[in-house]
Write a structure and sequence with these properties.
Layout (H helix, E strand, L loop, with lengths): L1 H13 L2 H13 L1 H27 L7 H9 L1 H38 L3 H16 L7 H21 L6 H6 L10 H9 L6 H7 L7 H27 L17 H33 L4 H17 L5 H27 L1 H25 L1 H8 L1
Helix pairs in contact: 1-7, 1-10, 1-11, 1-12, 2-3, 2-9, 2-11, 3-9, 3-11, 3-14, 4-5, 5-6, 5-12, 5-13, 5-14, 6-12, 6-13, 7-11, 7-12, 9-14, 12-13, 14-15
Length: about 375
């Protein structure tokens, strides 16, 4: 059960905001392109998580990524990863707040009233309370949440079987002449759980030899769920797929099935929100020596402040976080691992580093207008 819970913590955290963006992105670039992205970035993601797992086994417990970087690369790396960790995890939490509000509004908006903005505030407030307590309060919910969400996807498949047109999945994106880089940040975001590796290692106390299998199993499970979800949603809604995936099903399936999907969508995103919030809290608390309650306040108020001032496009948020901030962390993890085992893995690690560095440069150049407007 420790191994199952460890896998569910990793996979359950991955299966969040990234999942719901994938059908829409698939309609923009085509199914062939999205499959190639998952194959390529999936293998790289498994490698990165393996690298970090090996580092975690050789580093003191109760430390998080910035301390890892400081120990293995020096003070400059600790400062850099502290910045990328705070901004990146805050951005991830922001994405869950945006999406959670959309889902809650889809369930209660017509009955109780209120829009996505108000429900995002409610979603955040409940999550902030959970972050105050700890991972033991939600680890079993992660496991049950994955099982429940798979059941809902199966129910959508059964109830929408007559509406699923496989040709829609194959035809979307035909004639696309836009940016083929569009899926990069979102797919990387959806496959990222490295920040949770220290949590996973703690969960495997007494069975840490199993850590090397957590990433392949967890990431493989996440990819299968993603592809299944993309096929079902795009097969039903085609080019009309909505940005958050589920709400676009309303015109094709009965409200009961869609409502159930929204409930488990909330659960999938909420558990990821809380788990990443706990990770960021522990970075501030364990690695930087910030008082626990102050760390909690920082973790919970940075993303909600960003949301209130107008950062509310969740695809844009996860794309930037994945392609820039997570890519920086992945590069540093690879450099740390290369330093630990340089001779045997040079041919593997250098191309991985090159992929992330080029991705970072391209994403910054591509989004320069957005970045400059935000700074102004």
């Amino acid at each position: 059960m420790k191994f199952i819970y460890a896998v569910s913590i990793l996979a359950g955290t991955m299966i969040g905001a990234g999942l719901f963006a994938l059908p829409y992105i698939t309609t923009q670039v085509g199914s062939g392109v999205i499959l190639l992205y998952f194959l390529f970035l999936g293998l790289i993601s498994i490698a990165i998580h393996h690298f970090f797992g090996q580092l975690a086994l050789r580093t003191e417990d109760n430390l998080r990524f910035p301390s890892f970087a400081g120990i293995h690369l020096g003070p400059w790396a600790k400062k850099l990863t502290t910045c990328t960790g705070i901004i990146g995890l805050s951005g991830s939490i922001l994405a869950y707040i945006i999406l959670g509000g959309e889902f809650l509004s889809g369930i209660f908006g017509d009955v109780v009233g209120g829009g996505p903005f108000e429900y995002s505030l409610l979603y955040w407030a409940i999550g902030a309370a959970f972050i105050f307590f700890g991972i033991k309060a939600i680890e079993k919910v992660e496991f049950l949440g994955i099982v429940g969400f798979l059941m809902v996807l199966f129910l959508i498949l059964v109830r929408g079987w007559g509406d699923i047109n496989p040709s829609l999945f194959l035809e979307v994106g035909e004639g696309f002449s836009g940016d083929l880089f569009l899926p990069y940040g979102a797919v990387l975001f959806s496959l990222w759980g490295a920040a949770l590796i220290p949590e996973v290692e703690e969960e495997l106390t007494g069975e840490k030899e199993k850590l090397k299998w957590v990433a392949p199993v967890g990431i493989g499970l996440a990819v299968l769920i993603y592809l299944f979800f993309i096929f079902v949603v795009v097969g039903i809604t085609g080019a009309e797929t909505s940005k958050e995936g589920i709400l676009g099903l309303v015109d094709h399936l009965d409200n009961g099935v869609v409502g159930l999907a929204l409930v488990f969508g909330i659960l999938a995103t909420f558990t990821s929100f809380v788990t990443l919030g706990l990770t960021l809290k522990k970075i501030l608390w364990y690695d930087l020596g910030v008082h626990e309650k102050i760390a909690w306040a920082v973790v919970t108020f940075i993303p909600i402040t960003a949301f209130v001032i107008g950062l509310d496009d969740y695809i844009q948020v996860i794309s930037f976080v994945g392609a820039t901030l997570l890519a920086i962390d992945a590069t540093l993890i690879t450099i740390m691992y290369q330093k630990y085992r340089p001779a045997k893995y040079k041919l593997l690690t250098y191309p991985i580093i090159l992929v992330f560095v080029l991705g970072i440069i391209y994403n910054i150049v591509y989004n320069k207008d957005i970045i400059l407007s935000f700074i102004d």
